[in-house]
Amino acid sequence: MNAPMNGAAALPASSAGRSPSLADMQGLRPAGMAAEEWALRLELAACYRLFDYLGWTEMIYNHITLRVPGGAADNPHYLINPFGLHYAFVTASNLVKIDARGAVVGHSDFPVNPAGFTIHSVIHAARADAHCIMHTHTTAGMAVACKQEGMRHDNFYTAMLHGQVAYHEFEGITTHLGEGPRLIASLGQRNVLVLRNHGLLVCGEDIPVTLQTMWTAQRGCEIQMAADSMAGANHPIDPKVFGVILEQRRPMQMQSRPGQVLFDGMLQRAGIRYPDLV
Q1: What is the DSSP letter of 233?
Q2: Which of 85, 110, 116 is nearest to 97 (CA)?
Q3: d(CA 249, CA 243)
C-alpha cells in the first residue's frame, strides 16, 4: 500500500471533540488512490470490526465484499478481507482489491481465499445492485438454515423480511463455479438468501443498508431459535400485517442512505474509530 500523500498527515482540527468522519480521513489517503475507494475501504474495515464486536465472526473465515470503482464493465473490482487475518485486525490498508475472477489487483502482502469468493463473485456479476455482500456462519443463522421450514415469519424481525427471503440447497463447500447459475436462480431479485445447512447471505447497494438487513435476519433467527426452545405453539402473525409492515417501513427505505444512522450509532457504541483503521 502506498504512503499517505503528505506523509503522516494530521486529522483536521475540526475533528477535535468528535469522532472523525470519513471526510476527515481524506488527508490520510494513500497517494494515487481515488477518494471514493479510500472512503469505501475505511467503511468496509469498520464493518469487519463491527462484525467482530457483534460476535458474527467464524475464526478467519467468511467474507464481506464490496464493489469499488475501477476495472472493466465485464470485470469490476472488489474489496475482500485478507485471508488468514481475523476480522479484528482488518484495516483500510490491508483489505485486498481483486477482480471478478478473484485475482489480486495491484499489490497485497496478504493472500485471498478464492474459494470463499466463489459465492460472492457470481452474485456480484449477476446483480448490478449487489454492491455489498455479507455472509455469516452464526449459530442462530446456521440453526435456522438447518430446519426444513427455514425462516418462519412469526416474530418482529422475520415479519419485516416477509417476501424477501430465498433459499438455496446445500451442495457442499462452495468451490466450483458450476454452482453459480443455480445459486443465482435461487436468489433471484431477493436480498436475503438462506443457504440450506450452511448459513445466511445478504446483499445490498451499500454497507449500511446491507448491515441493517443482516441485523434483521440475524435477530429474527435468534428469536426463532429461542422461541422454539420453549414449550407451547408459536403465535402466528395475521398475513394482513405483512402488507402493513411493508408500508410502515417504506419511509425508512426512502432515506438518502438507509441504515446509515444504525451503522454510525453501532460504530460509536463499539468504539470503532476511522483513525484506528488506516
Answers
A1: P
A2: 110
A3: 10
C-alpha distances out from residue 54 to 88, 159, 214, Å: 11, 22, 12
Closest C-alpha among 77, 84, 42 to residue 63: 84
Asked if residue 141 lies in contact with residue 134, where contact means CB atoms within 8 angstroms, the answer is no
C-alpha cell belonging to residue 206? 451499500
> CA dist 204 to 42, 48, 165, 244, Å?
18, 16, 13, 23
What's the CA gap between 1 and 72, in Å, rounded?
22
Q: Kindly give, in sequence order, each residue whose CB lies less than 8 Å from that of residue 178, ignoring residues fewer than 6 positions away.
A: none
User: What does the block give as the cell for 274?
Assistant: 476511522
Give the pLDDT confidence of 157-175 residue by residue, as tens digits. Answer: 999 999 999 999 999 887 7
In this structure, what C-alpha cell is assigned to residue 156? 418482529
- Reported pTM: 0.91
Please return the burial class of 41, using the count of CB atoms within 10 Å of its CB with bins 0-12, 13-18 and 19+: buried
Nearest to 123 by CA among 177, 55, 84, 170: 177
Beta bridge partners of 104: 98
Q: Considering the chain, what percentage of its residues have pLDDT values greater than 70? A: 92
Handedness of CA 7, 19, 271, 156 (dihedral sign): negative
